[in-house]
Amino acid sequence: MRIDIPAGKEPISYVWGEMVPGIGAAAADFSLAVYAHTTLGLREFEAARLRVAQVNGCLFCLDWRTDRDGEKVEDGFLDAVTEWRTTDAFDARTRLAAEYAERYALDHHGLDEEFWSRMTARYSQAEIVELSMCIGSWLAFGRLNHVLGIDSVCVLPGH
């Protein structure tokens, strides 16, 4: 870890809550809102989230699987995300979600008209904004956790 965590303190709660309470609480609320209020399908949500986790290298994010009313993506889904270009496990929306996440994280200047034409054929404008906010959250907070070295020890509050 790159941040000194006092003995007995849970790292993510300490870093996000105690160290920067004004910013950390707002960041945590945004991070949790992405899960609580999404309208995106589980597979497209997880494809984008896991692709960002792969780019960030966040150990916690790579290990985490979103649970919606007892439903999670299947074993092997992470491998399919790695192979998003060629996997037969994804429909067009799921593949686009993984592609968008990767390009958002690595080449946002390269999001050209050809990409947007494919994206708007499958996603509504509201869904594109929602997916963009989700990806932005995962990119920022997963990267923060990894850069600070707390991704291998963090847990979400209440889990």
What features would you highlight for this structure?
8 helices; mainly alpha; 159 residues; single chain
Q: Can you give me a brief rundown of this structure?
A:
The chain is an all-alpha fold and 159 residues long.
The separation of the N and C termini measures 21 Å
Question: What general outline do the C-alpha atoms trace?
Answer: globular
> What oligomeric arrangement do these chains adopt?
single chain
Order of helix and strand elements from N to C terminus: HHHHHHHH
- Continuous helix count: 8
- Structural class, by secondary structure, is mainly alpha
- Sketch the major β-sheet: none
Q: Approximately how much helix is present in the residues?
A: 55-70%
Mean pLDDT score, rounded? 94
Work out the strand percent.
Answer: under 5%
Low-confidence stretches: none
Number of strands: 0
Give me the Rg, rounded: 16 Å
Descriptive notes:
InterPro entries: AhpD-like, CMD-like. It comes from Streptomyces cavernicola. Helix content is 62%, strand content 0%. It has 159 residues and is an all-alpha fold. The longest helix has 23 residues, at 125-147.
Topology:
Layout lengths: L10 H9 L1 H16 L5 H15 L2 H5 L13 H6 L9 H15 L6 H10 L2 H23 L12
Helix pairs in contact: 1-2, 2-8, 3-6, 3-8, 6-8
